[in-house]
TrEMBL record:
<protein>
    <recommendedName>
        <fullName>Protein Metev_1918</fullName>
    </recommendedName>
</protein>
<dbReference type="InterPro" id="IPR036071">
    <property type="entry name" value="AMMECR1_dom_sf"/>
</dbReference>
<dbReference type="Pfam" id="PF01871">
    <property type="entry name" value="AMMECR1"/>
</dbReference>
<feature type="domain" description="AMMECR1">
    <location>
        <begin position="5"/>
        <end position="194"/>
    </location>
</feature>
<dbReference type="InterPro" id="IPR027485">
    <property type="entry name" value="AMMECR1_N"/>
</dbReference>
<dbReference type="InterPro" id="IPR027623">
    <property type="entry name" value="AmmeMemoSam_A"/>
</dbReference>
<dbReference type="InterPro" id="IPR023473">
    <property type="entry name" value="AMMECR1"/>
</dbReference>
<dbReference type="InterPro" id="IPR023472">
    <property type="entry name" value="Uncharacterised_MJ0810"/>
</dbReference>
<dbReference type="InterPro" id="IPR002733">
    <property type="entry name" value="AMMECR1_domain"/>
</dbReference>
Amino acid sequence: MLTNEDGKSAVTLARRAIETYLETGEMIDPSELDLSSIFKEKRGVFVTLKKDGDLRGCIGHPYPDSQLDSAIIDSSISAATRDPRFPPVELPEMNAITLEVTVLSQPELVDVSPEELPEYVEVGKHGLIAKKGYSQGLLLPQVATEQGFDSSEFLSHTCLKAGLSPDEWKKGAQIYCFEGQIFTENTPDGDVSEEDFERACR
C-alpha cells in the first residue's frame, strides 16, 4: 500500500500531468519528480476530477497493465480531455478542480475452494476479478456496497462482467481480490488526504 507521502506524490503527478498537457500538449516526464520505487510497480489506478463537488471526469486503468507513474499520467490526461461525458477541461478550470487518485493493490489469486469464497470476500473492502480462459471481468470494491450485494452476489456479478455464467465462480473460474486507496485534494491544488475507498469512481 502507498504511504501518505506516496499519495501526495501521486496527486501532484496527476495535477502536473494535466496542467502540462493542457498548456503544452506534451506528456510530463515522471523522472522530474522524486517518486518512490512503488511508482515503478504495475498497478491499476483511477483519476477523478471534481468541480464544485460535481464529477468533472473519471478514467483509469482497472488492471495493473502499466507502471503506476505512467498509468497516473495517462489516466489524468484522459480524465481531463477524453471522458465522453464531459467537454475537455480548459487550463483556467484547473484552479477550481480537485483531484482524486485511486490506486489499486496488486490482485491476488484467492486460493480457496469455491464453497469458501463467499466467506473470504469482504464486501466494501475487496474488489474482484473473475477469469476463465480468455474471459475476464473486474468490479471495484464500492460496486458491491452501492448495489447492496452480499459476497455471493458480488462473485456472481463479477462473473457476469467477464461474460461468464453467474455461477462460474462455483465451477472453476479463478477469482482474484484487490483493495484500493484514494488520495484526494481537500481544495484545488491544496493539501492531500487519504479518503474512504467507497467514494471512488466506478
